Amino acid sequence: MNVALISRSTLYKQPGGDTVQVERTADGLRALGHDVHIVLAGQPLPQEVELIHGFNLGRPADLLPYFKSFKGRKILSTIFVDYSLADKERAPFAYSLLGGHGMEWLKTILRGFNGSDRMPSIGYLLAGQRRSMKRLLTLSDRVITSSMSEYERIAAWSALGGKGLRDKHQLIPLGIDDDFLKSTNPQEGRAGLLMVGRLEYLKNQKTIIEWASERNWPLTVVGDANVNQQDYYKACVSIAGPTITFLPYTNRDAIIRLMDEHKCLVIPSLFETYSLVGWEGAARGMAVVANKAADMSETLEPVAELVPIENKEAFIEAIEIGLKGHKKSQVPFTNFTWDVIVSRIVSAYR
Description:
Elements: E1 2-7, H1 17-31, E2 35-40, E3 51-55, H2 60-69, E4 73-77, H3 84-90, H4 92-113, H5 122-139, E5 142-145, H6 148-158, H7 163-168, E6 169-171, E7 193-196, H8 205-215, E8 219-222, H9 230-239, E9 244-247, H10 252-261, E10 264-267, H11 276-283, E11 287-291, H12 296-299, E12 305-307, H13 312-323, H14 338-349
Parallel strand pairs: 1-2, 1-3, 3-4, 4-5, 5-6, 7-8, 7-10, 8-9, 10-11, 11-12
Helix pairs in contact: 1-14, 2-5, 3-4, 4-5, 8-9
């Protein structure tokens, strides 16, 4: 089979969890003998492609041109993030006027104007975010979510929840790279907290940086600033005490080494669809503490201590327990390798 995986134009300029998801899916498909092309929004489809697999329902301006014109089978991995909590804090007046979908429409336009992303089409500008997303769902032959709560959110706002969307839906979690499953360092050689992810309002790293500075916790923060949220990065740096270390986005081997050096991984995000890094940290033997928020309350439940981050006292207590090396009993991680997950993706292609 000849497959095109379609994602945002900034997939490599601003790498994130979807970068890992696209690349590992491509690797797994190639290992099974399929021809795979990673196509960034705006690039032409190779003529020989038989199936397209788009990533990120929240970026309909990127995917719709392909889904409208392609005549073959169309698969959509939704990775549908709700940015509303961050937008309410970042731009409360604009959010009160535009709402969640309107804010995404505006951000898509602004990214085009400031050159950090492609300018959307006239069709998208006229249709808006919500109608464009519904059109994308309608055009898809298969809709893949990584959790049931993600599917339920999509069904609720789209009003497409009847049999049509239900019949298209497939639940497939993300996979863990084999490198994360190799032998780990003993707990005695570990110390401190680790956070991994692009620095932005939604990821909420500033809260943990503030608490770590107050309590002199050794904390390593790994990730680049969101190019459109430089103010948030500067705020994080400005409040950081002497026990806080900032490192840029780095490669997989370096992340594994950092996970083996630290005792506790903290995920304070206001929202995550899956948070693969939580599974990766647990596979490396770390204690994992995460905000009890959608969709993490479902996807991280087997491997993380989930505590509402607005309960500061309880969240701090969970971190301090994690710093002592206490963690949830381990799950059979080999059931979640990319080989296993990609075999399920191939089944969804049929």
